[in-house]
Amino acid sequence: MNIKDFNAGTYQQQTGYRSFQPAGINHEWSWSEPTIDTLLEQAVFKLGELNAFSLYVPDVNIFIRMHVVKEATSSSRIEGTRTDIDEAIMDEKDIQPAKRDDWQEVNNYINALNYAVDRLAKLPLSSRLIRDTHRVLMSGVRGKNKHPGEFRKSQNWIGGATPTDAIFVPPVHTSVPDLITDLEYFLHNDNIAVPNMIRIAIAHYQFETIHPFLDGNGRIGRLLIPLYLIGEGILAKPVLYLSSYFEKHRSLYYDNLRFVTESNRMIHWIKFFLAAVTETAKTGIQTLQSVLALKERLEGQTILRLERKVPRAKQLLSYLYTKPSVTGSEVAEVLGVTPITANGLIDDFINLGILREVTGGKRNRIYTFDEYLSLFR
After folding, report:
1. Which domains does the chain have, with CATH numbers?
2. Residue 179 CB neighbours (<10 A)
3. Could you report the per-residue pLDDT of 52-97, keeping only the tens digit for each?
């Protein structure tokens, strides 16, 4: 099918409202617009560069956690949470009670993503993995009573108080199993020649249109993108996340998805998606380069001033790369030292400009690794 001839689906009359019934996507796709080829080439090139760079970075896994935290924060903010990355890295006990629900949603996203990436080693990206990941995402948060881990068995809608005044009404629940099966086949169909970037762009649109869960669809739909790239071996490490780009261009993100449904303009969505991949990959490369430069400067110059304390200073730095917000008791536990020794090293890090105390109090102090954290903000 040529993309310009694509018909996204039809509206079906229900009792008092119309639902949208998406067309299947499991078939070959072609296009006659040269811009797609150019954008696809740029996206694939930059993604390959990011993948190669991630394999080159020593101990890259310790930096990946912050990529995941950034993705979780951005994806959740698209859905209305107000947790920023500085709060997301804190422990729950250090979060103001009024903000703990949002904090928990962000951390559930982190847990869901890590869970899914680990499961990919044994289970392909499939409806089973999607449901299991959704169960982790919705555990113990708002939406926990909306059947986590199960495709919906009732009508949902977007915007409005009821389906009657909704902005968009997804397909009836009885269509969900067949539509998800079609999407799953499309992702893994080796008998059709569809480039991976085009395939996951179309799949993301389709998932958001199906809206198979009662809650959490946007976050799961965005999770599909890195999971597909990792599952297909396009990325060796989970270092590409598009939610920050989607949040920055939120209106365009929603408009391009909506225009497919309303006007069959799949080609505009694909262009937006490919531009997102290219720009996000560029940002990812720049971030890793900045991380390496910071690591080299701190470990090769700055902490050498601590002389005999250098081994413990390196140990603390390694921990800060994975969690750039700590307390004195946490440092003592991680390093296996007394509180006095831990606080002494923290003071050294403050004097060197590595850590900054953020509470302003005399008790329960929290220290952040600002220069490193700023690379992900």
Report:
1. 3-288 (1.10.3290.10), 301-373 (1.10.10.10)
2. 23
3. 988 888 777 878 888 888 888 898 888 888 888 888 888 888 888 8
